[in-house]
Amino acid sequence: MNILISGATGFIGSYLLSSLLDEGHRCRCLVRRTENLPAVFNNDNIELFRGDVNDVKSLENIGEKIDVAYHLAGAGHVAAVSGQDSRKAFDVNVNGTRNFIEACALTGVKRFIHFSSTAAMGLIRAPKIDETMPCCPATPYQMSKYKGELTALEAGKRSDIGVIILRPCMVYGPGGKGEFLKFCRLIKRGVFPRIGMGKNLTPIVHVRDVVQGAANAIRKGRGGEIFLIASERSYPMAEVHKAICEALNISRFYPYVPVWLAYLAAFLIEQAAKGSGKAPIVSRMNIISTTTGRVFDIRKAMQTLSYQPHADLYLGVAETISYFKTESLL
């Protein structure tokens, strides 16, 4: 098949590109630059299309002779505190999504797979969370991801494109950074406490499992459907802490800190970060997210997309930390 990908140079996108090439597909990749690209792009089955999701004119004819489009280009993060970061998140995640899917519609693309995030749902307090539950995004980043979904679905209805939404939880693996790298750095420094008395169930998923579900969505699932992509269970934070310590070959105390104290400390860290213009190493949203203890029900993805997460936590964490060390990130 002829497949279009935005965000192919990113963490998940690069794995998806490799997987699709291995399956024999031909890929057209939207890139903002064509120089100094990773080695995976040196492939006869890859066509580079220079453009930007926020430049409508640059997207002209991007979907010509394309069967399926994947939209992974995104911006922002849950820890972002500045107004500039929030505006960028909306500009890329909402307006950029609209521009990209409308450009695809003009050229006859029939299937559009949109990468969102469980962040779009906000923090839902329930024993198990599935796709039927109403979203309650609170932060600018969460709202941008949710509105990006709505934008894609609405454009799909107008244009007769089958839009499938994928909502992965926190993704880790070699090549990634984000929240998982932050966990590792804090644990290595010995400043990662146990917050509150709960298990602090943490949903994380290996990048290769995410890509498996995404690749299966080429032919499976109907337009307008949403799928949660996560591991089969959420891990107690104590287990994640243990896996990271083992991979780092260190022993670190895991001290208890009351929720109120952790929240206050995060607030002070956020205020200091505002002055520096950098994202805080810990935010109040991190504290709330950690103590909410989320578990995602992935039965729909398993039944409809034949999604089967296989990654072992300890092996996945070990290879990820090996990558961090190789890249001098830890």
Q: Label the overall shape.
A: globular
What's the average pLDDT? 92
> Radius of gyration, rounded?
20 Å
Number of helices: 10
Instruction: Extract low-pLDDT stretches.
Output: none
Q: In percent terms, what proportion of residues is strand?
A: 15-25%
Q: What is the element string, with H for helices and E for strands?
A: EHEEEHEHEEHEEEHEEHEHHHH
Across the major sheet, the strand order is 3-2-1-4-5-6-11
In helices, the fraction of residues equals: 40-55%
> Based on helices, strands and strand pairing, what is the structural class?
alpha/beta
Number of strands: 13
The description of the largest β-sheet is: 7 strands, parallel
Query: CA-to-CA gap between the ends?
Result: 40 Å
Give a description of the structure.
Helix 3 links the parallel strand 5 (111-115) and strand 6 (162-168). The protein has 330 residues and is of the alpha/beta class. Strands 3-2-1-4-5-6-11 form a 7-stranded parallel β-sheet, sandwiched between helices. Helices cover 42% and strands 15% of the residues. The chain is built from 10 helices and 13 strands. The termini are far apart. The mean pLDDT is 92.
Primary descriptors:
10 helices; 330 residues; globular; alpha/beta
Compile the SSE list and pairings.
Blueprint: E1 2-6, H1 11-22, E2 26-31, E3 46-50, E4 68-71, H2 83-106, E5 111-115, H3 140-159, E6 162-168, E7 170-172, H4 178-189, E8 194-195, E9 201-202, E10 204-206, H5 207-216, E11 226-229, E12 235-236, H6 237-248, E13 256-257, H7 259-276, H8 284-292, H9 299-304, H10 313-326
Parallel strand pairs: 1-2, 1-4, 2-3, 4-5, 5-6, 6-11, 7-10, 8-13
Antiparallel strand pairs: 9-12
Helix pairs in contact: 1-5, 2-3, 4-6, 6-10, 7-8
